[in-house]
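Suppose you are handed only these lines of text.
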Amino acid sequence: MKDIELTVTGHRAFGGYGHLTLMTEEKLAFAPGQFAMLKPAGAIEPIWRRAMAIYRARATARATSIEFIYQVFGRGTQALRQLRPGDGARTLLPLGRGFDTDAVAVGGREALLIAGGVGSAALLALAEQLKREQVPTRLFLGGRSRTDLIGLDDFAALGVPVHVATNDGSQGVTGFVTLPFERFLQDRAEDAQAGKFVAYACGPHPMLAGVAALTAKARILTYVSVEERMACGFGVCVGCVVAVKGRDGDGDYRRSCVEGPVFRADELDWS
Ligand SMILES: Cc1cc2nc3c(=O)[nH]c(=O)nc-3n(C[C@H](O)[C@H](O)[C@H](O)COP(=O)(O)OP(=O)(O)OC[C@H]3O[C@@H](n4cnc5c(N)ncnc54)[C@H](O)[C@@H]3O)c2cc1C
Ligand code: FES
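From them, the structure of the protein bound to flavin-adenine dinucleotide can be written out as follows.
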């Protein structure tokens, strides 16, 4: 984990979202699903940095460029929105445990990625890695409307088939992203039974719970990236805990910034 100031090299706003590109003259390495905590350099408010998934990173021997996609909610993301090229961003990274790809990289398995809204920001780097490892990959992408289908073009450019759902029906199937996902699992029930799939999901908690219920029924190994509210981002404030199932039936808790944000879906207590 490093605490460094990165320089803004690009910032594009679209609707209620921002696409921020930061640069450092250091070579940094990340695992898909890891995240950063960031805020404008020198800013007193907000006190705490905000957690953002590393959307895409490119490293050369001399520099690393890191992209984030954020949705504007409150003070932290409003402050990020003010950043301009040349400004500094105080950044803690890389943080957390990313996605495990060992299980999908064997035996001709296929990766099923399920994303809701800005949750897709945590999945593009995974799709890039799976492509490098020649793992067949498809994406189920949902949003409230077509303008909330974050990263659609970048996933399509990787050659990933995309099944789209929007709540208002402006693109793809009308409804939640779990709808096309459920239909796919019904169509490919035999492959699911044969253990051909591994699922990876990121999005709002109800979506993750819906995906976890579908994949538990279909007996598909599933990893979810949770987006709990975080303060420190490195394990000391215990503000980001998630409930996990205890071995003896009693519940227990894990810090999602350190033991997560990626967990096996069957380890979490969804009740
Ligand atoms: C590991 C991790 C990765 C994340 N990656 C991304 C990412 O790539 N892009 C991104 O946009 N966000 C991401 N988030 C969520 C992001 O950290 C929060 O949205 C952000 O901290 C909000 O800060 P704020 O100051 O703008 O809002 P606050 O002032 O903290 O909150 C304002 C209001 O918005 C509500 N709110 C805040 N966050 C959310 C949320 N996520 N969903 C629904 N309501 C919310 C609050 O309850 C409050 O009512 C990630 C979170 C985690 C833990
Ligand atoms: S955010 Fe502080 S312990 Fe996880």
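What can we learn from it? The first strand starts at residue 2 and ends at 14. Helices lie at 75-81, 124-132, 152-157, 178-187, 189-193, 205-217.
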